[in-house]
Amino acid sequence: MNELDTRTNGRLHQTATRREIAVAVILFLFTFAIRAWGISTRFQLLGDQIRDWDIALRPFTSLPLVGPATHVHGYTIGPAFYWILWTIRVTLGPFFQNLPHAGGIGQALLQSAADVLLLLAIWRRLGSMWVALAVVLFEATAPFDVALAAVVWNPTMGSMLAKVATALTLFNWHRQSTAKAVSLLAVAWMAVHAYTGAIYVTVAVFATALVDPILARDRKVTVRNAVAMVCVAGALQVPYVAYRFSHPNEPAMAAVTGSVADVLSGRASVRFGDSVAGYLRAVNFIEVRPWSFAFTGWVLVASGVVVAFRYRRDLPILMMTIVPTVLCIAGYAFFLSGLDNYYYFSVMPAAVLMVVLAITAILPPRASRMLALGLVIAAMAIAPARRSDAMTFHQMREYGAIVHASRVIVNRGTPVRAIRLDFTLPPTNDPEFVYRILGGRIDPTSPWVAVILRSGEVTYRVVG
């Protein structure tokens, strides 16, 4: 290659890099804005958020050795969620008086950073900016995702980590240095720490790290990745093992283990029909909302067939699209309790990627590029309607009033025996939580009860 060719290739590479950076920055700012805009006045502060943010306010050495309690009894199998939430509180908390919405802003930042990583991974793997943008825009502007992305909640954290693991797999980190392979496996396993439903993506990542080098007949990488899996999972489970020794009678996932045991023993039947119905319902609710299509299942099946044929020689693509979908349907068939939509959060990027890849694979390259551009335009066109829909649920519009009133009570300096609300919120809300974070103290001998009005104003009543 002569000097002119070298300079030309260098300029082309610099141009491509600058384009990637520009698109990544714009995408990050856009997705972060739709997730976090107005969060200081509408943050959802319920029982789970109060519990977890209160834990994040502690010193690191006081964090739990396991993850959050689940509504089906037990807890998740590791504390990665609290590690990350504590880091958010330490880095962002001081800028927001350590109020809970700082955690929501931190989670929204991480979600948008994960979207950027997924964008770049798809872009570089397929060589198409438009396909990558279409996937990420459809996934990131989904109303359910937007509504919950800035809430302190472990399922959204698990979804974010699963998305990062997916992107790193598409970047082929499992084939590269030992440090990159270990990082990929650690992120994938921490996704399960954060939320058990991320296990389907984690299994796909681990399987890719083994099967890919086996097919390439690279014995050295195969052995290295196998050893790394054992070491990473073992190291990250040390806190859990320590907790189990001190709490031997508290099963981590009683509902899950009980369901599987009932099916395997013959006391209950595998519920494949219910599992398929739950998955399709979740796709419609999370990704298709505010619309709903009766033919969603056929679109997904057709997309899986097209992707399986078109990308049959690209194992990471197959593993990170079709495999998580199949695994989650098979896995939840053994779960005997009800299937909530958020159980499927972590596998939604796989579904969106599978459908977009299938749509753009059925046409010649030039037409495919135009179709991908059309998908990006469509995603942007429906984004306002999707965000408007997202603002109709999982919002607590009284949060701003509670924060403002709590500051007023603290600044006034009058000791209070209690704080009450003159409006109704879910029973898991604690109107005194924000007040205590701001430095207020509840005095059981005070004759005053502070009452917060919906407007954010405060009145005082004498006890008795």
Descriptive report:
The structure is a single chain. The protein folds into two domains: 12-252 and 364-390, no CATH class; 399-462, no CATH class. Helix 5 (101-126) packs antiparallel against helix 6 (129-140), helix 7 crosses helix 18 and helix 10 (199-215) packs antiparallel against helix 11 (219-236). With 464 residues, it is mostly helical. A three-stranded mixed beta sheet has the order 1-2-3, covered by helices on one side. The longest helix has 34 residues, at 3-36. Helix content is 66%, strand content 3%. The mean pLDDT is 92.
Quickly describe the structure.
66% of the residues lie in helices and 3% in strands. The protein has 464 residues and is mainly α. Strands 1-2-3 form a three-stranded mixed β-sheet, with helices on one face.
Task: Describe the SSE topology.
Layout: H1 3-36, H2 39-42, H3 47-56, H4 80-92, H5 101-126, H6 129-140, H7 143-149, H8 154-170, H9 178-194, H10 199-215, H11 219-236, H12 238-246, H13 254-265, H14 272-288, H15 296-310, H16 315-332, H17 348-361, H18 365-390, H19 399-412, E1 418-421, H20 433-437, E2 448-452, E3 458-462
Parallel strand pairs: 1-2
Antiparallel strand pairs: 2-3
